[in-house]
Amino acid sequence: MIGPLIAISSLAAATALLAHLRRRWVMVTVSGISMTPTLQPGDRLLVRRCRIAELKVGDIVVLEPPRPVHPNGVVVIAPARSRTRWKVKRVAALPGDRIPASAHAATGGRETVPKDSLIVFGDADESHDSRQVGLYPGDRILGVAVHRRAGQPLQP
Question: In sequence order, what are the residues at sequence separation of 6 or more whose Cβ sits closer than 8 angstroms to the Cβ of residue 39?
Fold first, then answer.
């Protein structure tokens, strides 16, 4: 009788641990070339969920792109998709930092990054990032990449 109770207890503990880990960590597969040569399509990233306040310039982050804004200033809400198309980019500037010259035009001439926003660039010249779309919203950050594939540390 004790054997099944131990098995059930162990299974419950393992399930609770897995649920806790999934709230803190996630795996993401790179699908584009915007972060080459640092990351290649097919690379798997271990991502630690975090908020903008936990980031530093040079971190590789996974985040959603800004939502399109209609010319009259209204944010366009696209229909819900079954899968989010996450972007993998490098943090170039955080709230309060000066906006890099290459992103200045796309941010409407702002001088510094506003609260709850960030500037991100891809490592490749072909990257679609803050140089084209401006500020990325800080509330759409999934997390910071901490390892690639089989635990290879990422170097900023």
Answer: 30, 45, 60, 88, 123, 148
Neighbours of 137 (CB within 10 A): 15
Domains and CATH numbers, the chain: 25-153 (2.10.109.10)
Assigned token pair, 115: 């609260």
CA distance linking residue 75 with residue 140, whole number of Å: 15
Phi-psi group of 46: left, alpha or beta (phi > 0 → left; psi -120 to 50 → alpha; rest → beta): beta
pLDDT, one tens digit per residue, over 98-144 is 999 999 999 988 999 999 999 999 999 989 999 999 999 999 999 99
Residue 6 scores a pLDDT above 80: no
